[in-house]
Amino acid sequence: MSTTRLLLLGVVRIFQPAYGYQLRRELLTWNVQQWANINPGSIYTGLRTLAKHGFLEELAEGKGYKPGRTSYKLTADGETEYFSLLRQALWTVDGFQPGLMQASLSFLWSLKRDEVVAALESRIVQLEQHEKAAPFNERQILQDPGTPNHVVEMFRIAVARDRGELEWTRSFRARVLAGEYSFAGELPDWIPGPEAAEQWRNLPEPPD
């Protein structure tokens, strides 16, 4: 749920105020249904749930409005929750929820560069600790007579993912230190082209 919540709050924060249909369409262009396991049909429900909990404000268009024509913007609590979830996803290594880091990458630009560097250095330390502990954890699995033989391969694939993430994190940190990308308080390194801007100005009606 934290991955979904971060994505929904983050995309609302970018385009607010924005219609539910807008937000759903944007998230689908990010392929969130694949790497974040978000059911496209649950996006509207997630937006309404966040509004119910006070993180989003619903701006309805008259009586009998459709969910797709309800627009949303972050409340003060929503802004706080957004940064809390973003920092949690960035600073915490969780091999069982790789979507968290994927989601945080979408919004790193809203943090300052020095914090991103510090968080990446923290992730490197955590991943290095996982790597050091891996042989002993594997040995424990192999020596446990109550553990089926195939379970060790489940552990090994998790270790391989950690190893790959460690290599990527080191190289990403080096790129950030070298001045690549843009972060809070800096000039943007990417501006949407006129075609993208036009797409957001002229929205089709949402489906029934």
Automatic annotation (TrEMBL):
<dbReference type="InterPro" id="IPR005149">
    <property type="entry name" value="Tscrpt_reg_PadR_N"/>
</dbReference>
<dbReference type="InterPro" id="IPR052509">
    <property type="entry name" value="Metal_resp_DNA-bind_regulator"/>
</dbReference>
<dbReference type="Pfam" id="PF03551">
    <property type="entry name" value="PadR"/>
</dbReference>
<feature type="domain" description="Transcription regulator PadR N-terminal">
    <location>
        <begin position="8"/>
        <end position="81"/>
    </location>
</feature>
<dbReference type="InterPro" id="IPR036390">
    <property type="entry name" value="WH_DNA-bd_sf"/>
</dbReference>
<dbReference type="InterPro" id="IPR036388">
    <property type="entry name" value="WH-like_DNA-bd_sf"/>
</dbReference>
<protein>
    <submittedName>
        <fullName>PadR family transcriptional regulator</fullName>
    </submittedName>
</protein>
